[in-house]
């Protein structure tokens, strides 16, 4: 039976110490963050996803951004090697979780670095951003892992945002949506739709035309609704203060057969 599972990870009590690259630090309300995380997980469940929790990594402030620790294509997981050293402790628990879910496991090795937030899958095409957190050796290892499975890996430069998926994701028909001021080379994408808000460039495909999006992108939600899609908005404001977005709070495992 095909199953739709979403891997999530409970926020660390040290969440407020999370890394910042492009934003100034502002106080994070941990209790509110927990409420927002519960609501995010609830929205996934409401729309047909079984949520599975990775073991919490309380010593790692950024561990709630679980998508950065792994890339899954079909039943094969590639455990990343975070570009930020302070995040390297996050991968062990994620490795254990994806193995438990039935994935075969591969690893990015030194000198490679790879964050899952730099990897956007659109059908059999895997876009990978080369920038602050993912390097050329990591991209080579991604290719070596997934090209034999039929993936086409396309590397794109990322210099204006933290991760590739901080600026581009994809609609159900494969159209890439992005916030143009933060995309290095929009012309690298075959069908590119510019959106009016940075947070509007982050969509999680829930299935059936439904898109999980941040409540901070109302204009983009209207744009997508006009295209016949159904935005489902969640407030993730406390995570946005730490440069997180809807995509990085879960790993969607669409194609597992368990
Ligand atoms: C970090 O800098 O690593 C975290 N504070 C935010 C990670 C967000 N992840 C993502 O965009 N994929």
TrEMBL record:
Family: Belongs to the DDAH family.
Catalytic site positions: 163 (proton donor), 248 (nucleophile)
Annotated protein name in UniProt: N(G),N(G)-dimethylarginine dimethylaminohydrolase
SUPFAM superfamilies named among the record's database cross-references: Pentein
Species: Streptomyces dioscori
NCBIfam families xref list: DiMthArgaseDdahStm (NF045660)
Entry binding sites for substrate: 20, 62, 67-68, 87, 133, 242
A molecular function GO annotation: dimethylargininase activity
Taxonomy of the source species: Bacteria, Bacillati, Actinomycetota, Actinomycetes, Kitasatosporales
Record InterPro entries: DDAH-like
UniProt entry keywords in alphabetical sequence: Hydrolase
Keyword ATP-binding: no
